[in-house]
Write a structure and sequence with these properties.
This protein is α+β, with helices and mostly antiparallel strands. The protein has two helices and three strands, in the order βαβαβ. The termini are close together.
């Protein structure tokens, strides 16, 4: 099964990379852009067909390695 984990900084956590992109976009003339947040996406194939088991394992992966749960939230999508 295809797995996608989207990781973003939690609301309220300063995102300097997002601010830099927001400033650069304004400098390029894109004035209507605000609150830019930068995240990451991790995609991979998981063996098996048991979606509940895969989601449980991916949750453990996210909690232990893929996301820093102190400052980041994550969303798991399985197809």
């Amino acid at each position: 099964m295809k797995v996608r984990v989207d990781v973003m900084l939690k609301a309220g956590v300063l995102d300097p990379q997002g601010k830099a992109v927001e400033h650069a976009l304004a400098g390029l003339g894109f004035k209507g852009v605000s609150n830019v947040r930068i995240g990451k996406t991790i995609q991979f194939e998981a063996a098996g067909n048991d979606e509940a088991k895969i989601k449980s394992e991916v949750t453990q992966m996210a909690e232990k390695l893929l996301a820093n749960t102190v400052i980041e939230d994550y969303k798991i999508t399985i197809n």
